[in-house]
Design brief:
By secondary structure, the protein is an alpha/beta fold. The strands form two sheets. It has a seven-stranded mixed β-sheet with strand order 3-2-1-4-7-6-8, sandwiched between helices. Strand 1, helix 2 and strand 2 form a beta-alpha-beta unit.
């Protein structure tokens, strides 16, 4: 797997550039850094190819993104927009000031997971973020339609269990935290302007107080699902926007995007990236 990832890094730097057009049919954001820049290239590159370059790309740092990494990505995808740490902090100091939102600010510093919610989704607009460990194998019509309508969507978890701090029933009945079941963070979009951050701060405080043993993934997944619930978010078609968990993924020519997690990292790094449209 390590050898495959090294080959993937070398291949990422040798891709023929795809110029991003100012005529965008979609704008996406990635949280990336030192461990993921090559994965970001493959995900964004394959998406850009299917959209004929009519794609806007914003890069946010997980805390490790350097100018060199940005240079790697910009070489292959000229026109990407890197949002600096200074820009992010200046913005969130206005929309989520420390004295008013200490919990949400704490969460951002706790784990990079929360930078998706705080850094990307506090901009004054509808926004979609994508994980880097995905590859596109077709034109994402459902996402394009969502972008036009500015509605909320998410990638649907295929496993039965949701990664929440507690069961959906307890969260709902005891703490008034309604969640959509089986949300996967690979692709999530919603209207940032419709988020009640005062309420979100309170819900985050409740979770940290009552679930001190919960990990950042559980807290973030709970809060993100709570936001999606209040925007009546719809799931992307699971057959087209697929998640793979195992070493031997169930591949289909119908699949528009493949998201590789858990044991599926092995085929992702060794064989899957080689199938991409290059």
């Amino acid at each position: 797997m390590q050898r495959g990832e090294q080959q993937m890094k070398k291949a990422a730097l040798k891709l023929p550039p795809v110029n991003l057009s100012s005529n965008k049919v979609l704008q996406v954001s990635f949280l990336t850094g030192a461990k993921y820049w090559h994965q970001t290239i493959f995900c964004a590159y394959t998406l850009a190819c299917y959209l004929d370059g009519q794609l806007g790309i914003k890069l946010y740092s997980d805390g490790t993104l350097t100018d060199e990494h940005i240079g790697f990505i910009n070489k292959i995808l000229p026109g990407v927009e890197a949002i600096s740490e200074q820009q992010v902090l200046k913005h969130i100091d206005v929309v989520l000031p420390q004295h008013q939102f200490p919990i949400l600010r704490h969460l951002r510093n706790w784990h990079p997971f929360f930078r998706r919610m705080v850094d990307i989704h506090t901009s004054p607009s509808w926004a979609i973020h994508m994980d880097s460990d995905m590859i596109f194998f077709g034109k994402p019509d459902q996402i394009l339609e969502t972008y036009q309508r500015k509605t909320a969507v998410y990638m649907k978890e295929q496993l039965a269990n949701s990664y929440f701090a507690d069961s959906e029933e307890v969260l709902r009945d005891k703490y008034h935290i309604n969640c959509i079941k089986r949300v996967n963070g690979g692709i999530i979009a919603y209207d940032n302007n419709r988020v009640d951050y005062v309420d979100l701060e309170e819900k985050a405080k409740l979770l940290l107080h009552h679930y001190p043993q919960a990990g950042p993934a559980q807290i973030e997944q709970t809060l993100m699902s709570y936001v999606l619930y209040h925007q009546n978010a719809k799931a992307l078609d699971g057959k087209l926007y697929s998640i793979f968990y195992d070493e031997k993924p169930n591949l289909s020519s119908q699949q528009i995007v493949r998201h590789y997690i858990f044991k599926a990292k092995l085929p992702y790094f060794t064989t899957e990236w080689k199938k991409a449209v290059l």
